Amino acid sequence: MDQKQIAGLLNEMTLEEKVAQLLQLTAHLHEGAEDKGQITGPKEEMGVTAEMVNASGSVLGLSGAASIIALQKSYMEKSRLGIPLLFMADVIHGFKTIFPIPLALGCSWDLGVAEKSAEIAAKESAVSGIHVTFAPMVDLVRDPRWGRVMETTGEDPYLNSLFARAFVRGYQGSNLAEDKDRLAACVKHFAAYGAAEGGRDYNTVDMSERQLREYYLPAYKAALEEGCEMVMASFNTVDGIPASGNEKLMRGILRDEWNFDGVLISDWASIREMIAHGAAEDDCEAAYRAIRAGVDIEMMTPCYVRHLPQLIESGRVDEELIDEAVLRVLQLKNKLGLFENPLRGADPNRERELLLCREHRKAAYEAAAKSCVLLKNNGVLPLKPESRVALIGPFADHEDILGWWSCVGEKEDAVKLGPALQERFTGKLSVTAGCGIDSMTAEQLEAATAAAREADVLVLALGEASDMSGEGGSRTDITLPEAQLELVRQLKRLGKPMAAVIFNGRPLDLNGLFDESDAVLEAWFPGTEGGAAVADILTGSVNPSGRLTMSFPQSVGQVPVYYNAFNTGRPMDPSKTGERYVSKYIDSPNEPLLPFGYGLSYTTFDYSGLTVSSDEMSAEQPLTVNVTVTNTGARAGVETVQLYIRDAVGEVVRPLRELKAFERIDLQPGECRTVTFTITEEQLRYHHSDLSFASDPGLFQVFVGPNSRDTLEGAFRLI
Ligand code: GLC
Fold first, then answer.
1. Separation of 148 CA from ligand 1 center, angstroms?
2. Which domains are assigned to the chain?
């Protein structure tokens, strides 16, 4: 349909029909749905009536071509104006073929891998009838206590922005109306949900607008610049007002400043939750604040349906606001081609061919292989082919490696580490659990100890259950569960070389494991092909290349700890630990255990010869930075060369490091390559105290290296 036809359709709609387009409910609430909805919510509690359900404009969480075809057809038969349903779901890191969690994908530093994972997720979802995914989640995070750090790509605004763009490209492609294998993307959670106090989910977020704009907003903006069709409001307050009713954030920044005219959806019940926040007296006030803030679709609660008509009749809300919202929803349906073809890409036969097909599994394997991060290795990895290995731990033979947002992925489809290693390892291999995720029996320990005694090398497979992170999965103690630490202690007593693989959804406090192990491989939740990828790394077929995108703290007491911090007026000199009156702890170093950008390889790389093309640069005259990287080891490897800057003096204090560029290079043994980065004046801009976004003349340091800590230095002046 063209814009005129859409406008004409809007004019034909009654007020009730308009408001119904602004309600989204889970599938099982729809009469006639085959109840394949992945997510259910109590109908009664929400006060949702049958007529609301059957009139609502979009459905949350249903998938399956047959189910969606059936529901769409029955809905269209009843729809007076032939306005089709929108089907939306949480396809966060895969649909049926599950990819590594986004925090893992971020550690690949490979934007192509991220885009490919989204493209495949879109393909599997679209053929199953879905139109929109509630992804990418791009919330910047600095607190690993928060369970949803698994869902984002980490602590850096620049890197998160690049990944946000890559995910949007993968989900949406270049022509949503024509390309039936794509989804509309919905960037979330706007805004700054990852800054919840104490890392406690849904908790208060309070920061300066400057901090918000400098660190937390860039990735959302990048997603929208890439053409992302939708935005989801976050649960949290922003400067004292819940995002779902925050006019300054939504109308002021999102709509007016950024010119976003797409659909803004609330999060699950986040409009009604303004009552709990203490920002609305009742559903009616919540509806009033949300529609004025520019929220179009209400997810899971009927504040709009119940109260917008009377708010309009009473003159408190202008019907124009409803028309704007409904028009955006109709335009999205139109962009997806739903008026011409309400079933879009849903196809049961093709669904059977595509879901979990070999090509998709292969892509999931490659993503997992690139997302693992080698955190420590005293030479015990890769495993020597003819050695005797005891694989011990709750994840030795465990299928729970998909992560929290695994959509319709089945754990049974996952390649587990034990069987994968059995297939690949040519030496003698035993596989025992040793303990559960958070429990241990004497028999388990006895069996593990016996297996360990027979082995030359122990490989521990440890970690968190997938529900120990994800939504609602915040932890105050981010160490491994005690039963697993006890297993480590008991096995350590045998004095054998020990490598550990960890499966987890957040940076952990690795006390009790890191020092005790001779090697530590971070596998995150690696997805459907995770066991195969980890096994290939353990046996050396794959050389690990992942680099951390979120710092690992020494302990939870250090949190938040992140690389782009400020120097303070009394920085601690690590060489002078006796100083008291400096910014330090008396019981811990300041530095994280493992910094942003960190990761090892089975080979080694040497950095030399950092040069800056000029001592001065200007807006008209960028400069280049060269560095030579050499593979000084015995096997090929991929190195992620990272460039950071430090603005020595700013109108506001500036971070010790800011990532501004990186390049992944593949080097053969002995090969060296000169990597060249260009620095432009635009990259030096930041938000000043008056929120102006500009660079300042003055001294800049430049750092290049394998991570944010171990770098070669240079300097230049911006004039
Ligand atoms: C959840 C999450 C959000 C998700 C939505 C729909 O509460 O916060 O990320 O997309 O509800 O499931």
1. 11
2. 19-32+49-350 (3.20.20.300), 361-557 (3.40.50.1700), 605-718 (2.60.40.10)
Q: To test the ligand 1 pocket, which listed residue (88, 267, 407) has its Cβ within 8 A of the most ligand atoms?
A: 267
What's the chain's Rg over C-alpha atoms? 26
Among 110, 143, 156, 267, the active-site one is 267
Mean pLDDT of 485-508: 98
Q: How remote is the CA of residue 480 from the centroid of ligand 1, in Å?
A: 27
Q: What whole-number distance in Å separates Cα of residue 266 and Cα of residue 531?
A: 37
- Give the number of residues written for the chain: 719
CA 395 – CA 525 distance, rounded (Å): 11
Q: Each residue of 92-128: pLDDT tens digit?
A: 999 999 999 999 999 999 999 999 999 999 999 999 9
Could you read off the pLDDT of 319-338 as tens digits, one per residue? Answer: 999 999 999 999 999 999 99
Q: Sorting pLDDT into bands at 50, 70 and 90, what band is 470?
A: very high
pLDDT confidence of residue 46: 67
* Residue 134 Cα: closest atom of ligand 1: 10
Distance 141 CA to ligand 1 centre (A): 17
Atom 7 of ligand 1, residue of closest alpha carbon: 268
- Ligand 1 centroid, distance to 186 Cα (angstroms): 11
Q: What's at 645, amino acid-wise?
A: I
Q: Which two tokens stand for residue 138?
A: 């791009």
pLDDT level of residue 43 (50, 70, 90 thresholds)? low
Ligand 1, closest atom to CA 189? Answer: 9
Cα–Cα distance for residue pair 189/322, rounded to 1 Å:
23
Find out whether the beta carbon of 654 lies less than 6 Å from any atom of ligand 1: no
Give the whole-angstrom CA distance, residue 382 versus residue 380: 6
Atom 10, ligand 1: residue with shortest CA distance = 134
CA atoms of 343 and 16, how far apart (whole Å):
25
Strands 658-667 and 428-432, how do they pair? unpaired
**DSSP secondary structure, 326-389, as one string:** HHHHHHHHHHTTTTT-TTTT--HHHHHHHTT-HHHHHHHHHHHHHH-EEEEESS--SPPTTSEE
Better-scored residue on pLDDT, 49 or 37? 49
Q: Provide mean pLDDT across the span 225-242.
A: 98
